[in-house]
Amino acid sequence: MARIAITGANGFVGRNLLWRLQEGGFGDVAVIDRTADDETIRGQLDGADLVIHLAGVNRTDDPAEFQNGNADYTGRICALAAATAKPPAIFYASTIRAADPTDYGRSKLAAEAHVDAYGKSTGAHVWNARLVNIFGKWARADYNSAVATFCHNIARGLPIRVNDPAAPLTLLYVDDLADRLLSLVAGERPPSGMLDVGPVYQTTVGAVADMLHAIAAGRTDLSVPATGTGLARALYATFISYLPPEHFSYPVPVHSDPRGDFVEMLKTPDSGQFSYFTSAPGVTRGEHYHHSKVEKFLVLSGKAHFGFRHIESGERHEIVTEGGKPVIVETIPGWTHNVTNIGDSELVVMLWANEVFDRQRPDTMGMKV
User: Fold this and answer.
1) Residue pair 184/91 in contact by the 8 Å Cβ criterion
2) Under a CB-based contact definition with an 8 Å cutoff, are residues 130 and 95 in contact?
3) How far apart are CA 314 and CA 289, in angstroms?
4) Nearest Cα to 298, choosing from 349, 348, 258?
5) Which region holds residue 25: left if phi is over 0, alpha if psi is between -120 and 50, else beta?
6) Which of the four pLDDT bands, split at 50, 70 and 90, describes residue 1?
7) Which pTM does this prediction carry?
8) Which of 53, 59, 124, 258 has the highest CB neighbour number within 10 Å of its CB?
9) Superfamily for the 4-131 domain
10) Which of 256, 318, 260, 312 has the alpha carbon at shortest distance from 285?
11) 73-82 and 103-122 helices, crossing angle to 10°
């Protein structure tokens, strides 16, 4: 298996990458400390197949630190790698700011030049990746990215500042970057040069702030925005990772009456809502029909009788199921239905409806089975 050397392993990206390497069974990883002497670093580089160079300086009050931490340190890594018996491939985490006429941009551009020169002199594969704003779990608020700052503050009920909501924002999720690095670790060797890493998400500062506020609000109004793919998925996971432990749980309202309890768990914008209800022995719920609404029931505990009657033909159908049996009972438009606890203990039933309940248009007409 490949031997990997990593600089900047204690940083935001490095910490995420180390966990992914461990999960993938890549055990031979040399973590290079910036403070180590040349002999130590050369020993860590010797025998490495790939150097993932993440270390750098991106914020400082002293412009000289950009030169020292980016250009000079990269040149040092390249020189020590070139002195090994078999110079390793090098991936360098550069930035889209490398083209900027700033001390930071110039230092990153100079670091890229060191990597390119190393590749030409040794014949090793080298890749400079001009990375955009990286976000994800463990990024430092007020340091790594605006997303980190927004997540940290919103998760704690603190205000955020958005100077220009329409300002464009280009984002890269840390796990997508880790996926690309793992492909290099696994032996992929694209041509040397600039390496694209993605997917890259094009959005605005205001849109990200709105998405994060919506995610936070869902813990109160029970709404959950679309979170299954793309930027929405990555932002949801990132926001949740900034919650302090005392906010890992939150209460939801309980609607109780003599029949039992009814609790809504979450509501989605386009895929309905999830709830559960309880019933005491002998209690019947339902006694209504729908025109378009569809529900799915799963009995978690207790024993239930589901009764159905077609509202026109009068045809009847019944189902008996109980906790421990993985059976979904689905309501059918045009059939009035009910559910009765026919057991000796409390009935607990999970419920999904394909639409969020609308009191103005409930699509629920009372009719006994």
Assistant:
1) yes
2) yes
3) 13
4) 349
5) left
6) low
7) 0.92
8) 53
9) NAD(P)-binding Rossmann-like Domain (3.40.50.720)
10) 260
11) 10
3-state secondary structure of 67: helix
Non-local (6+) Cβ contacts of 249 within 8 A are none
| Boundaries of every domain in the chain | 4-131, 255-366
DSSP 294: -
Secondary structure (DSSP) of 94-147: EEGGGGSSSHHHHHHHHHHHHHHHHHHHH---EEEEEE-EEE-TTPPTTTT-HH
Active site residue 104: yes
* Residue pair 294/353 in contact by the 8 Å Cβ criterion: yes
Angle CA 226–230–232, to nearest 5:
40
Residue 82, both tokens? 């070139």
Sheet containing 295-301: which strands, arranged edge to edge? 255-257, 260-267, 273-279, 347-353, 295-301, 328-330
**DSSP string for 261-274:** EEEEEEE-SSS-EE
% residues pLDDT > 90 (the chain) = 95
Closest CA to 142 of 9, 244, 16, 12: 12
Q: Which of 54, 51, 112, 35 is nearest to 84 (CA)?
A: 51
Catalytic residue selected from 73, 92, 104, 201: 104
From the list 192, 159, 199, the residue with the least C-alpha distance to 177 is 199
For residues 249-275, one letter each, b for 16 or more C-beta atoms within 10 angstroms of the residue's C-beta and e for the rest, the string is: eeeeeeeeeeebebbbebbbeeebbbb
Alpha carbons 49 and 70: distance in angstroms, whole number: 22
Classify 337 as helix, strand or coil.
Answer: strand
* Architecture (CATH level 2) of domain 255-366: Sandwich (2.60)
Q: pLDDT by residue (tens digit) across 80-112?
A: 999 999 999 999 999 999 999 999 999 999 999
Quick: pLDDT tens for 347-364.
Answer: 999 999 999 999 899 999
Cβ atoms of 177 and 13 within 8 Å: the answer is: yes
Closest by CA position to 269, among listed 322, 205, 315, 221 = 221
Q: How far is CA 283 from the centre of its chain?
A: 42
Amino acid, res. 51: V
